[in-house]
Amino acid sequence: MFILPHHILFLFILLFSMTMVACSNSWFSMWLGLEMNMLSFVTLLMTSVNMREAESGIKYFLVQVLGSIGFLFGSLSLGCSGFFFSFNEFLWTYLIFFSLLLKIGVGPFHFWFPGVMEGINMINCGMLMTWQKLGPFCILIDLQNSIMKSVLVVFAMISGLVGGLGGLNQTSLRKLLAYSSIGHLGWMLGAIFISNTIWKTYFLTYSFLSLSLILILFFMGFTHINQVFSFGWEKTTDSLMIMMMFLSLGGLPPFGGFLMKWVVFNGLVNNGLFLLSTILISSSLLNLFYYLRVCYSLSLMGSDAPLWVSMNTSTNISIWVVLSGVISIIILFSSSFILMLM
Amino acid sequence: MMRGLHYTILFRQPRLRNCNVISPLMLPIRSASGSQKSITVWEPSRKSSKRYEVSGGKPMTKLEHMKHGFQVLKDEIVSWKEEQMERLRCDPLASFQHGDYETIWKFNSLDPINKWIVSTDKDHNIGKTEAKLELSPGRKALFHGLLNTEPPKDGYHAKSGFANIMSRRASRSFKRQSYLDWNSYTHLLMRVRGDGRSYIIVLHTDGYFDVTWQDQYNYVLFTRGGPYWQTVRIPFSKFFLAFKGRIQDKQSALPLGNISGLGITCMDAIPGSFQLEIDFIGVYYDAHHTEKFAYEMYKTRPLVAGN
Questions:
Q1: Hey, what domains does chain B have and what are their CATH numbers?
Q2: In chain B, which ranges are continuous DSSP H helix?
Q3: Are B264 and B201 spatial neighbours (Cβ–Cβ below 8 Å)?
Q4: Of A7, A50, A144, B143, which is most buried with the most CB atoms under 10 A?
Q5: Interval A148-181: pLDDT, tens
Q6: Which of B83, B182, B205, B208 is the best residue to mutate to test the A interface, defined by the most A CB atoms within 10 Å of its own CB?
Q7: Segments making up each domain of chain A, as ranges
Q8: B186 contacts in A (CB within 8 Å)?
Q9: pTM
């Protein structure tokens, strides 16, 4: 898919802009990086002839522009706030804070996220779920203070619950992954409380698992749960690895996803955030419920496999599937090394 | 998307004429599309143009409005509760076997028939066609009428003659717009008894923004005249994109999760009576149907439509 020159150009701008956001020391350059990122991503969304992708691109653009307006206004006002009451500093900081939460789709600012994910192709879904969250999170980590932490707890809880409850009745895999992403955002917001390293570990593990899963779903052409039904009878190894990735995302031991959640949970409990940890664990169970529904369709349901339809998957994809599954297990067994970084 | 005075589809599609496209596109089906010329892309209303808005009905007093509003509120709360119960039941249909089908509209009583909307060119003051949708003696939906192709003497319309039935737009509680989710199915299934005429099956796929409000996917259904019923299975991959009745140069596959309603139109330019009896309309899953879109899109030179 990414073989056209403008794809490569805009991908480069995506990478560069996120680096710019992460390395900036001024509000304006952060905003600039976020804007470049948004514009290049919207261009990647709109390159298809499909009207639905174009519509999703416009919806994404409108939401991100709203967030950028709030961010820029808040940051400019923060620069001028020395002339007014210091109370206003909190106001503008919260404006920046809420704008960033809107940009990444944290509950209750999540309403645009499943709709946009539903309309775009799988590769862009993967980028929206992972890379597009990096910049705002880098800013959020630096933005937090003691008052904001209490607000962050509330949003983490809401995000976890929304991610769990929203995906319950979904048959579209893209929407399911969207709600899963919202749920994982709750965990990431919780990880911010503990340390930057924990957050980075969680984000990297989640990104790896999500991108692996997205790539496999893309190559298989799966967009709905009914399409994965009876796939297990064709390729047992591949279906087993896809199952492992879903269960890893759900936080089930002995997979790597369990480790990332366990570390965050451990940190939250040590910091006295019992309510947040309870709600995140409970919502994680809900996430696991709909992951298991996909796994059930994938491998455990007996059916008459159609004799004349076969999935033509190349050997390279199978290797990638196996590799992703193996690495997700290896992450668990390198837990001692990761714990040392804490 | 060109707007303006209508001309026949054959002249509009020289590129498609030279390629291997399904023959219904080449048949002399003339649309009576009379949409106004416009130099903007902004749509003032979902009905395409205020020129065609049908006015009528006795205006309600404020008290009647309030009473009606409370009744509507009660009904909407009941449907909202049903939606939440359905969500909490959490049991969507996830697995399909080859041959599975779902009946969406079953016309065996007046209630489903009354939920469909009949419109003709006479309703829009651009013709004299008359049509009705009734319950036949065999308890099926009977779409019948008299097609009149005489254009109105208004100096604007050169062609006329269409009759249409359309399902109500899919909606949720509190009048929120929704879509029919047919992503898991591959074919449209209908049991009909026609009169030998051709009818156009229209799937409306209006989107969020106004430029997509008139997007529709069409397929020409040929009926057999005679006493026997026919069960038709139309692959969704065979539907082609049109905007306000005009086939588009840049085609794309039907978005099965974005279907707002279904319509059946009679406008084959043959004046006289028509009759189409419908038993049911449903959707069907064929595990061996792998075609995504039946029409090829050719790479054109820069600045040519379709590039």
A1: 7-94 (no CATH), 101-284 (2.60.120.430)
A2: 9-12, 14-17, 62-89, 110-114
A3: yes
A4: B143
A5: 778 888 999 999 999 999 988 888 899 999 999 9
A6: B208
A7: 1-104, 122-305+313-341
A8: none
A9: 0.83
